[in-house]
Amino acid sequence: MEILAQLGDGFAVALTWENLLLALLGCFLGTIMGALPGLGPSNGVAILIPLAFTLGLGATPSLILLTSVYYGAMYGGRISSILLNIPGDEPAMMTCLDGHPMAKKGMAGEALSLSGIASFVGAFLATWGLILLAPQLVKIALLFGPAEYFALFALAFMTLGGVSSTNQAKSAFAAALGLGLAMIGVDTQTGVPRFTFGEVHLYDGLDFLVAIVGLFALSEVFIFLEERHGNSSADNSKLKVKRLTPPLSMIKACTPTMLRTSFLGFIAGVLPGAGASLGSFISYSMEKRLVDKEGTFGTGDPRGVAAPEAGNNAAAGGALVPMLALGVPGSGTTAVLLAVLLSLNITPGPLLFTQNPDVVWGLIAALFIANFMLLAMNIPMVGLFTRLLMVPPKILMPIVAMVSFVGIYGISGSSFDLMVMIGFGIMGWILRKLDVPLVPIILGTLLGNTMENNLRRAITIDNGDWFTLIDSPLAIGLWAIAIIGFILPLIVGRRVKAKMRRDEEGAISD
């Protein structure tokens, strides 16, 4: 009953005209970001961070806007997957397998609407999972001391590559690079400048919002400039959407699939580093094994659309659980949201639910509202969103660059930060060409100082004894999970990634 009372308080926060309009704007912009191939949730949220700060929004309104963008982008990723066979982002990759064959059969509208309904079911159930699970995690997290927190951050880094990672060594390199960047600035304990090279602007360290916008948004612009995509990916002949609503029998047949894969996706999202890609892949694979007796998956089976969509949206909600309860992001996009919270002087973790209950419960209530908005918006406005695929990148990318520059300058008023952002943009472009993941860099930049402070505190309390890091059952358990989480992808990850790639190539060749 206490949870329902807190949720009621959250709705009182979320149900203001300002917050409702921000949720609507976030859902609309997020769907656009998700629909455009290559952008995806992480880039979408990163691009719009400057807008939230330029508008001078408070903590709750900023989070409502950006999490609505996050959920909207998860919905929008299916549009280009189904119509063009081009995944809007990695989690939408599995939707291509049955979504595009449905479109080729003249059922594009039904596929789009069904995926919207599946997305709603996954996200709605995941939000209830967040409500029930996060407060329980908070109770466990209150037992943590400095050694346990250091082990928890180590777990986040070691599992960040996830089963779907391209290369554990590259993930480890990216995490080390992020931790190195976090060391820049004045040492909080000794007052000695580190890695500042005499540059006064670096004494306060790197602004992680600048790093995020540079790494995600600007690097995307540089990729497009290099590949010279002047024209849009779509043309009128490919964008035919006829009937918009799926028949009731189709929804009924897909309902058990949606419920099963929502649960699977949520579990995948809660695991640090797994995220929506794994949620989508596991949901599709498990459902195929369970119900595909006639071998119809991959040929336009509606259940093959419902499974990955419910799974990846449930994973998106699940990833918020460790971010809010422990301060450890469960995915790339929640790492970006974590940066927003930190920049607003709000520390995610166990005390967030007691110190800032209005922020947490207002955000959770807004997730429910955003889900209903997305369901109401996506089915009637499918035609509009499909037309956006015809916008040429030569128009879109300058807008992204302009929003990034104006927004960052509006936040800091410093031309030095613009130069740093360009530097991060170039670094992001190079790393993406080398297939090095960007999320561990962001996580290292965000958590590096906190991780270092907890390490120092733990060792100081125990008079320099390093064994204090494995001195409690909780710390030993976290280290064990971290080691398994690092080794398991080396064994299983290659097979999983190879299968994902085979499935994607098969879908695109069709």
UniProtKB/TrEMBL annotation:
<feature type="transmembrane region" description="Helical">
    <location>
        <begin position="208"/>
        <end position="225"/>
    </location>
</feature>
<dbReference type="InterPro" id="IPR002823">
    <property type="entry name" value="DUF112_TM"/>
</dbReference>
<keyword id="KW-0812">Transmembrane</keyword>
<feature type="transmembrane region" description="Helical">
    <location>
        <begin position="140"/>
        <end position="160"/>
    </location>
</feature>
<feature type="transmembrane region" description="Helical">
    <location>
        <begin position="472"/>
        <end position="492"/>
    </location>
</feature>
<feature type="transmembrane region" description="Helical">
    <location>
        <begin position="359"/>
        <end position="379"/>
    </location>
</feature>
<feature type="transmembrane region" description="Helical">
    <location>
        <begin position="399"/>
        <end position="422"/>
    </location>
</feature>
<feature type="domain" description="DUF112">
    <location>
        <begin position="20"/>
        <end position="443"/>
    </location>
</feature>
<feature type="transmembrane region" description="Helical">
    <location>
        <begin position="20"/>
        <end position="39"/>
    </location>
</feature>
<feature type="transmembrane region" description="Helical">
    <location>
        <begin position="45"/>
        <end position="71"/>
    </location>
</feature>
<feature type="transmembrane region" description="Helical">
    <location>
        <begin position="263"/>
        <end position="284"/>
    </location>
</feature>
<protein>
    <submittedName>
        <fullName>Tripartite tricarboxylate transporter TctA</fullName>
    </submittedName>
</protein>
<dbReference type="Pfam" id="PF01970">
    <property type="entry name" value="TctA"/>
</dbReference>
<feature type="transmembrane region" description="Helical">
    <location>
        <begin position="111"/>
        <end position="134"/>
    </location>
</feature>
<feature type="transmembrane region" description="Helical">
    <location>
        <begin position="323"/>
        <end position="347"/>
    </location>
</feature>
<keyword id="KW-0472">Membrane</keyword>
<keyword id="KW-1133">Transmembrane helix</keyword>
<feature type="transmembrane region" description="Helical">
    <location>
        <begin position="172"/>
        <end position="188"/>
    </location>
</feature>
